[in-house]
Amino acid sequence: MSFVKLLRQSPWSARIGICIVLINVFAAVFAPVICRYGETELVNDVWMSPGDDNLLGTDHMGRDMFTRLVYGARNTIAIAMVTTLLAFFIGSMMGFFAAILGGWTDLILSRLIDVLMAFPTLIFALVVLSVVGTGTVPLICVISLIAATRVYRLSRAVAMDIEVMEFVEGARLRGEKIWWLMWHEILPNALPPLVAEFGLRFCFVFLFIASLSFLGLGIQPPIADWGGMVRENSGAITFGIMTPLFPAAAIAFLTVGINLIVDWFLHISSGLKD
Hints:
CATH superfamily: MetI-like
Number of helices: 11
Oligomer: single chain
CATH class: Mainly Alpha
Shape: globular
CATH architecture: Orthogonal Bundle
Distance between the termini: 17 Å
Radius of gyration: 22 Å
CATH topology: MetI-like fold
Number of strands: 0
Helix content: over 70%
């Protein structure tokens, strides 16, 4: 079934989700074209109301809020995507290895993952980032490690169900190596649940980055980031100014859109009919 035909048969909720994601991707890619100001440019007084010069007003330093939101989409989405891809590569490869090799390999990897999952995710990230320092690279490494533990659990469980099937046994009897089994037998049959998990895990990573930025350990100023923008402008609420609600709404907007797409994909992969 082609993507166009699949899209035509999709429910309105999925189409809305796709539109939301495409709007954010468009804003992230064409941020310099869309915005009339620079990401860190001071353009007006502090916390100005929305107007012709500043579509959503200004932030706590007099920077254009619309510009910061658009560049925040670029920074937050890009870092979340890189982090999720890295987490899935690490977690799925380890899960497939554990399922195919079994024995001591499975035991050691599973217990190692259990140890990492025993720590509350936010506390673990805060402790590690406090030690290694803040920055984009440490942020990606820490969050990808946390997310990889959940991916490992799912990929291992799915791979163990596939690994005992006859076509995998046939490949073993032909003398195929472990890498061939992983890429040609396990991965193609494990894609539906992994793709659905990718969407959910991306939401987790996206919200986790926003949470760390709100606490001051995520993406660092002056780089625009939605979570950091909420923290920087939180004092405006005291004066009845709605500026921090714009990045908060952007976070909720993208999260809802991705979940609508994931729900649609889960419905398709389950084989259920409307």
